[in-house]
Amino acid sequence: MQPRIKSQVRCTDGVAGEVAHVIADPLLLDLSHIVVRINGTERQVPITIVSRTSEDTVDLLCSSAQLAEFPLFARENFLTSKEVEIPHLEDHIHVEPGELFVPYPELEKSVPRRRFFTAFTNMMSVLIGLPLIWPVLRFVMQPMYAPFDNRWWKVGNISKIKQENVGVQFIFRKSVKDSVLMREDDKQSWLVKASPDVLKKVYEHGDISFPDNDGNVVWVNKATVPYVAFSGKCPHLGCGYKWRSHKTRGQVFLCPCHLSLYDVAGKVLDGPAPRPLDVLPIRVAANGDIEVIDVEYKSGKSEQVRIT
Amino acid sequence: MQTIGQKIYDFVDERIGLKTLQAKMMNEPIKGGSRWAYVFGSCVVFIFIMQSVTGILLMFYYIPSADHAYDSTQYILHEVDYGWFILSYHFWGSSAMVVMVFAHMSQVFLWGAYKKPREMVWLVGLALFGLVMAFGFTGYLLPWDQRAYWATTVGVEIMDKTPVVGDFLARFLKGGPTPGQMTLSRFFAIHVMILPAALMGLVALHLFFFRSAGPAGPFRGTPEELKAKTDFFFPRQVWKDIVAMATVFLVISALALIEPVQLLEEATPDPGDYHPEPEWYFLFLFQLLRWKIFSGEYGQFLAATGIPVLFLLLLVALPFFDRSPERNIFKRPIALVSWAVVTIGIVLLTVSAIVNREYLD
Fold first, then answer.
1. pLDDT score, position B159
2. What confidence tens digit (pLDDT) does each residue in B85-125 have?
3. pTM of the entire structure?
4. Does the domain at residues A8-108 carry the CATH identifier 2.30.30?
5. Domain range for residue B308?
6. How many angstroms separate the CA of residue B73 from the nearest CA in chain A?
7. In A80-153, which ranges are continuous DSSP H helix?
8. Inter-chain residue contact A146 with B161, CB threshold 8 Å
9. What is the torsional sign of CA B90, B92, B97, B98?
10. Is B348 within a domain?
């Protein structure tokens, strides 16, 4: 039978007090002490002093004078069994009603040391993590800011364009090196053979120049060339738009994603687009072959921000 | 004579306290008794488990490279025995997940179950909601067909509009200035490794917090009535849960059978005749972006990032400003009307996006 809390404690010479707490040995997984409350003081009595335990009494082998010599119970030196992780501790020990105490290990009592260890652990974690930030960041960022690609791509021949002021789709193959993969992508561009008034709208701010990463001008489109190549990427959110006839506006460039409409000069007629269609650097050879640089701008911006 | 099974059980129990563990799992008192309204969370867990199983199976054949992603997905669909079923189940499972998460969140919202002391459960739940949407977004790219490519292109362009971090975020996801192999690699790593790990951790936390705070129970009834009807998680609630899970399984399987996945053309930066569109559960946002008031740089940011983020922040703040202990939804008119407005709004926007399709050709 295990001593119950509040049981009467009897010494060899009569009643001395009551059981206030019980203490377990965390290694033996068994009771090691009872704490006896006598006139307001609490004393820690080894379980070996207990001779007999009944439902509501605990008999001790010592006298009340001897009992008064046992050490005082210091609460701060103990933890409740709920505050520690000791497997199987309470398989056989049942404390009713109240808490089961286990001793606070000697080495754990110094508070400044605990603080130091917490700080030390955190500091070491930071010291492990810190030198990793830059390499990891560089590792994931490696392909993110590739320099602009200023190669010219042959997209087709002007003989394909039969009419003025009509959008004509040109699909061209572009070879790209994607990490170790050599891939070929189909890209589209829309070309317009512009009449003088449309050309005037396209070049309303003068010649169009194309800088590379350092700001050096790579190419200048001049109004003397009547052909205009538009990037196939909708400046709204990057979808592919088409040349379609519209109920009220006639022939327009229409983006099916968010329904932006552009006229043949690329100016916004309707929809959420923030800027006109992007013009590509274009050069037309003597035999009518058209070449473009596949410049790409950030979508959704009112001004052009080149990304590749 | 003890059976072998019993002996093994006892052996394990003696060492790790299996019986107690089992009791703690199953003997969860449910205030006011088990209900069909409580099955959604369990269904979400079930769908996640099935997504993991089918997802791992798909990885046996899928090759995450721009050269082979499309072909290997077609191979799964047309060559591998029951590949069409596993892939279609995974595909429809993702839709079922979104539907079920919405149902789960609605139930919690309408029952006022986010209120004190369950705020932490609610917060972790919102993070899980974010993860589920991220799962849908990243998984969509992997088949590498036109639908996949364009939904991702537009989706990433939308993120690019976020102030300050947008450009970095978009380039980080794309693995470069334009979409390509690096995008596929990153989406694959995020979809099969980062998100599942994060989800499992947060689900554990969600359940732990839920068990610590306890279930909310019905929003009506006196303590005596609730006490009289209280039962344990097992067996009545478990029974309802398993019936619901079986129903979910049947519905997803039926959808996979009736409407198996069909890929479009292989992804290419030329959309051809394809009209780019995101997965149906992002359609409402997509439609919002078509509105004129959301044109221009600021408008785009507002519709694509601003409003969704604001809405999520509102949900995060919800248990902290809605502090009245009243949980009865019929005595919380603002909550009821808000829920109805948001739900109807999403439905209307989605329907109008679908109707708009017809005008495009």
1. 86
2. 999 999 999 999 999 999 999 999 999 999 999 999 999 99
3. 0.88
4. yes
5. 34-357
6. 19
7. 111-141
8. no
9. positive
10. yes
